[in-house]
Specification:
With 380 residues, the chain is mostly helical. It is built from 16 helices and 2 strands. The chain has a two-stranded antiparallel sheet. Solcar repeats lie at residues 70-161, 168-260, 288-376.
């Protein structure tokens, strides 16, 4: 067969493959054209071309990796924004809850009383003004952004990885939520330690509140541990124990309630299908109405708070132990014994009502902001 005819036949075959396989057409056609040019160089090459198998290079690998990197970066950013939004909404409640949990001497009288939450808030406002209700909030935002950013981003990534190995979606969601909680807590714990100590301190009226660096220096200089950095990790092992049910239950229940809203209650909880188009394509999941997303987030907060509250209470007591006695290490066993002796089982749930009042709007705002930003950035 003449070499020129062989070249034309081979290039015609490449064009047909380009029409049938659009995803790999460019690479296949390029390979065929390269073989055709080799065939034109000598008769011995023609036989190789006639008997050769088509050379198909892997396609889409780089694109998929790049898309996942972009997805991870976007979920990192919007996760941090969602966390800061939620914490700002509940900052005053969080301040009062810490004072109740740690049995602050000036506010213990409000614990367990009717409307104790509001009476304590009013007392703080009268003495310190609005800034008193947000004391330690700047440190809270500095902590919560990396915490929430890493939490949401790692949850999405872990859910994809575990989906390949874990068949049950509920088990997958729980494991992904627990693991992402452990990762985010490990990264942000020292900042949380400073924030809790700032929220606990109640200086006399007219005395300015302690600043971040002075509180950090105070914690570092406490003689409880030989290495000052260890003081920033008081209660850290217990925190890891508590985040497993907290993170796992929160994501598990949120996924369950949103799935329920999209299926059984879709006629009232989900937006019409006609409104689901996003940038020219139809979304895989129906977007929930605002009230449904808020309800799902609030319910997940109730379940998560109930499952993890005893761990949180003991951890808070350990974190502020240095404020009472700088040389005290405050082991978890000693704190548990103290709580049990003073309040029994109910002692481990002091402030839980305030916890509910706090976590419902916090989780609702967090998941709502996160899901709406995902829609805005066209993420699923």
């Amino acid at each position: 067969m003449p070499h020129s005819v062989l070249v034309l036949i081979t290039m015609h075959t490449a064009a047909q493959q380009q029409q049938q396989q659009p995803e790999s057409a460019g690479i296949t056609a390029a390979c065929d054209a390269h073989l055709a040019l080799d065939a034109a160089s000598g008769p011995e090459s023609a036989a190789v071309v006639e008997n050769a198998e088509p050379v198909l290079l892997p396609t889409g690998t780089t694109t998929l990796a790049g898309d996942n990197t972009k997805y991870a970066i976007k979920t990192l950013v919007i996760g941090g924004i969602a966390g800061c939004t939620a914490k700002t909404v509940v900052a005053p409640l969080d301040r009062v809850k810490i004072l109740f949990q740690t049995h602050n001497a000036r506010f213990v009288k409000y614990t367990g009383t009717h409307f104790g939450l509001f009476r304590a808030s009013a007392a703080i406002y009268r003495e310190y003004g609005v800034r008193g209700l947000f004391q330690g909030h700047s440190m809270q935002l500095a902590r919560i952004f990396p915490y929430a950013a890493i939490k949401f981003m790692s949850y999405e990534q872990l859910k994809m990885v575990l989906g390949k190995h874990v068949g049950d979606q509920h088990v997958r969601n729980f494991l992904a939520g627990s693991l992402c909680g452990v990762i985010s807590v490990a990264v942000s714990y020292p900042l949380d330690m400073i924030r809790v100590r700032m929220a606990y301190l109640t200086p006399a009226s007219g005395v300015p509140a302690e600043r971040v660096f002075s509180v950090a220096r105070m914690i570092y200089s406490e003689p409880a541990y030989r290495f000052g950095l260890f003081n920033f990790f008081r209660g850290f092992p217990l925190s890891l124990m508590g985040i497993i049910p907290y993170g796992g239950v929160s994501f598990l229940t949120h996924e369950y309630f949103t799935s329920l809203a999209r299926s059984r209650f879709a006629h009232v909880a989900a937006r019409p299908i006609d409104g689901q188009n996003s940038r020219g394509r139809r979304r895989k999941q129906r977007e929930l109405r605002g009230w449904a997303e808020l309800a799902a987030g609030g319910l997940s907060g109730i379940f998560a708070q109930t499952a993890s509250y005893p761990f949180e209470l003991v951890r808070r007591r350990m974190q502020i132990a240095g404020a009472h006695d700088p040389a005290r290490k405050a082991s978890a066993i000693k704190v548990v014994r103290e709580v049990w002796n003073t309040g029994g089982v109910r002692g481990f749930f002091v402030g839980l009502t305030i916890g509910y009042v706090k976590v419902v709007p916090m989780f609702a705002a967090s998941f709502y902001t996160y899901e709406k930003l995902k829609v805005l950035f066209d993420l699923e």
